[in-house]
Amino acid sequence: MNVLLTGFEPFDRETVNPSWEAVRALDGWRQGAVVVHARRIPCVFGAALRALDTAIDELQPQLVLAVGQAGGRSEFTPERVAINVDDGRIGDNAGHQPIDQPVVAGAPAAYFSTLPIKAMVRDLRAAGIPAAVSNSAGTFVCNHLFFGLMHRAATRPVPGMRAGFIHVPYLPEQVARLPGQPSMALATMVAALRVAIATSLAVGEDIRETGGQLH
């Protein structure tokens, strides 16, 4: 059983991206019949989806966890929904800055994750890892990839594949230059991904408990 983990290259003048550092630490990890494969995704609109498609075509994974950096967050945050809009506050790594453009023209307005995100948060907290459901993946390349992933799953599915997106905080070495920002140790992120994989493979129907937010 193949599990695909994706992480992004650094962007916005950073020299490291915690999403890639965390997923590549698990490349080749085996747990029973499960084999984890990590792939680095360019932080570029369009190119990110092409890289994702190539990885899915190659691996035919039963589980895809796409991971991205969310600077300013303090928790490991599985995303609930991807929206069909690109609206770059900054340019991507190729200088593209789409504004109010669809990720996929003619596609639905949004897709929900097919991961058991609330069970994942429950299990992460039980393991002592700060976690929460997130209800917005933004409108930059993270959401772009998340929407493209879910559109691929809806229109050209790998049989039995579940998929979704997770945001992680900055690494401590990043916030050494950003006083006051929260961070999470790389070892904690790696442990969190192991929990996320295990929960996603073990839980068929997500639990019903509060994961909403006031704003």
UniProtKB/TrEMBL annotation:
SUPFAM superfamilies: Pyrrolidone carboxyl peptidase (pyroglutamate aminopeptidase) (SSF53182). Pfam families: Peptidase_C15 (PF01470). Keywords: Cytoplasm, Hydrolase, Protease, Thiol protease. One of its GO terms (molecular function) is pyroglutamyl-peptidase activity. The keyword Protease applies. Its EC number is 3.4.19.3. Gene3D superfamilies: Peptidase C15, pyroglutamyl peptidase I-like. The active site is at residues 79, 142, 167. InterPro entries: Peptidase_C15, Peptidase_C15-like, Peptidase_C15-like_sf, PGP-I_bact-type, PGPEP1_Cys_AS. It catalyses: Release of an N-terminal pyroglutamyl group from a polypeptide, the second amino acid generally not being Pro. It is found in: Cytoplasm. Its main location: cytoplasm. Removes 5-oxoproline from various penultimate amino acid residues except L-proline. Homotetramer. Belongs to the peptidase C15 family. This is Pyrrolidone-carboxylate peptidase.
